[in-house]
Write a structure and sequence with these properties.
15 strands; single chain; 14 helices; alpha+beta; 448 residues; 19% strand; five-stranded mixed beta sheet
C-alpha cells in the first residue's frame, strides 16, 4: 500500500514538474521521396541566413508522433520545428502546451494556441493552396495550370492579413510583418525552382515580375530569416535562369546584385561554407573585395588559403598528427623534401588495393628527398594501429580521427586521395594520380 501511494505521489510530482515547462507534441509526416532523414525532426533557430538545430526529436513509428520539452532559453522567441527543408515557426511560453500536425507543406496548430501561434496557424492555412505546388509529389504537375490563379488570389488577402496582426507582443508583431511577406515570396518562387516556367515575360504573374524588378537585397533583416540565404539563391536563380533565360554560373551573378554591403559579404561567406561554387579559387578572388568587417576579412583569408592550396603552385597549409606511438609530426617538418600524402582509411578497399603499388613506389625513391606520408581518416585508433602493424605497412603513418587541419582546410571528403607537395611546401597536385599509374612516379621525379 505504501509503495502504491509513493508511486502515485512520484507520478504527481513528475507531472507537475513537466507541466511547468513548455511542451510541443504532435505528428510530422514527410513523403518517402524526400532525401532527408524522415525518422527525426529538429527544433531549430534562425541564424546567419539559415537554420541551426537546437534539439533532435525522434519520430515514433509508425505514426510519426513526437513530444519535446522546450528549454527555457528557447521560450518567448520564434523557433522552428521540422526538417531541414520543411519547417514551421512556433512561439512558446513557460507552462504552455502546443500540438501540431504537419507535413506536405501544411500545418495545423491546436490545443491552447497562444496569440503568436494563432498568427502562424492562420497564415499557413491561408498559404496551403500555394504551398502544395512545392511540397507535394504531384504539386509540380498541377502548377502549370493552376499556380498563377492561386498566387493571384492570395495577393490581396496577404496584404489584409499583415494589417490585422495585433497580438499585443510588439516585438513579435514587428518581426512577423517583415518575415511573412518574405515567406510568401519564397513560397511563390518555389515552383519555378522545380521546373515551372512560361514562354514570355507577360505570362508571368505580376507579383513574380515585381519581385525581379524591385528586389535588390538591401534589407539586412533578410539575413535574420531562416531561409534568408535560400531566398536569395532561389530568387536569383528564377530571375536569371528561368525568367531571363541567361547562361553562366549563378555564383558569379548574385553577389554584385546584393546592395546591402554587410549582407553581401555574409552571403559570399555562406556560399563558401556550403561549398556551393564551381571554382573556389576564382570565386574567392572575385568576391574577397566585398569583405567589410575584420571578422569577415579574417574568414575570407582562411578560405583564400584553402582555395589556393588546391591550385598548382599554391602554398600548402601545415597540419600535425600523431604516429602509432603518439609522436607528433608536422607537414612543415618535411620542408626541403618532396612529400606524397596518401589519405586513406582501413575500410577503403580502393585505398588498400593501391598499397602494393605505393610500397613499390616508395622503394624506387629510397635515399632520395622524397617522403611518403600515409594519413588515415579512421576514427577507430586501435583498428588503424592494428592494420598498420599487422600488415607492416611502409611509410610514415599518422592518425587524424577524421578531424584537424587536413580534414578541415584540405576539405577531404573522399578517399583515396594522393596529394603531392614540392620541396618548398607548394602544391604540385591536389589530386595526383594513384601509385598504380606510372604518371605519379614521373611527376615525383620531376620535382626532386
Amino acid at each position: 500500500m505504501k509503495k502504491t501511494v509513493l508511486s502515485i505521489l512520484l507520478l504527481g510530482i513528475s507531472a507537475a514538474a513537466w507541466a511547468q515547462h513548455a511542451v510541443i507534441k504532435g505528428k510530422f509526416v514527410k513523403e518517402n521521396g524526400s532525401t532527408v532523414n524522415t525518422s527525426q525532426i529538429y527544433l531549430l533557430k534562425a541564424e546567419d541566413g539559415g537554420i541551426v538545430p537546437l534539439s533532435l526529436i525522434p519520430l515514433a513509428k509508425p505514426d510519426h508522433s513526437f513530444q519535446i520539452q522546450v528549454a527555457d532559453s528557447d521560450l518567448n522567441l520564434i523557433r522552428y520545428i521540422g526538417f531541414e527543408d520543411e519547417f514551421y515557426p512556433v512561439y512558446m511560453r513557460k507552462g504552455e502546451e502546443l500540438t501540431i500536425n504537419a507535413g506536405s507543406g501544411e500545418i495545423a496548430y491546436s490545443g491552447k494556441v497562444n496569440a503568436e501561434n494563432k498568427v502562424f496557424a492562420d497564415w499557413y492555412k491561408m498559404m496551403a493552396p500555394l504551398r502544395k505546388y512545392s511540397y507535394t509529389k504531384e504539386g509540380w504537375k498541377l502548377a502549370a495550370n493552376y499556380y498563377a490563379a492561386t498566387l493571384d488570389s492570395l495577393v490581396k488577402p496577404v496584404e489584409t492579413f499583415m494589417s490585422s496582426i495585433k497580438t499585443g507582443n510588439a516585438k513579435f508583431d514587428r518581426y512577423v510583418k517583415f518575415m511573412l511577406p518574405y515567406n510568401f515570396r519564397y513560397d511563390a518562387l518555389g515552383p519555378f525552382a522545380q521546373g515551372l516556367g512560361y514562354a514570355k515575360h507577360d505570362q508571368y504573374p505580376v507579383f513574380i515580375s515585381n519581385i525581379f524588378k524591385t528586389e535588390n537585397y538591401s534589407d539586412q533583416q533578410i539575413w535574420t530569416l531562416p531561409y534568408g540565404y535560400s531566398y536569395i539563391q532561389t530568387s536569383a536563380f528564377v530571375k536569371h535562369y528561368v525568367y531571363n533565360l541567361e547562361n553562366g554560373l549563378l555564383e558569379n551573378i548574385i553577389a554584385p546584385e546584393i546592395t546591402n554591403p554587410k549582407m553581401r559579404a555574409d552571403y559570399v561567406l555562406k556560399t563558401l561554407d556550403r561549398k556551393e561554387y564551381q571554382k573556389m579559387a576564382l570565386f574567392v578572388s572575385k568576391n574577397k573585395q566585398y569583405m567589410i568587417t575584420d571578422q569577415q576579412k579574417s574568414r575570407m583569408e582562411t578560405f583564400e588559403k584553402r582555395a589556393m592550396l588546391k591550385e598548382s603552385g599554391g602554398q600548402s597549409i601545415d597540419f600535425a598528427y600523431p604516429d602509432r606511438n603518439g609522436k607528433m609530426y608536422h607537414l612543415k617538418d618535411f620542408l626541403g623534401k618532396v612529400v606524397l600524402i596518401d589519405v586513406w582509411a582501413t575500410w577503403c578497399k580502393p585505398c588498400l588495393a593501391e598499397q602494393p603499388a605505393l610500397e613499390e613506389l616508395e622503394k624506387s625513391f629510397e635515399g632520395k628527398d622524397v617522403v611518403f606520408l600515409s594519413v588515415s581518416i579512421d576514427t577507430e585508433k586501435d583498428k588503424w594501429k592494428n592494420m598498420v602493424e599487422t600488415k607492416k605497412l611502409s611509410g610514415l603513418h599518422l592518425f587524424t580521427n577524421n578531424e584537424g587541419n587536413l580534414i578541415g582546410d584540405y576539405e577531404i571528403v573522399s578517399v583515396p586521395r594522393f596529394i603531392l607537395i614540392d620541396k618548398n611546401g607548394k602544391m604540385v597536385s591536389f589530386d595526383a594520380a594513384r601509385p598504380s599509374d606510372p604518371k605519379l612516379k614521373e611527376l615525383i621525379q620531376s620535382k626532386i
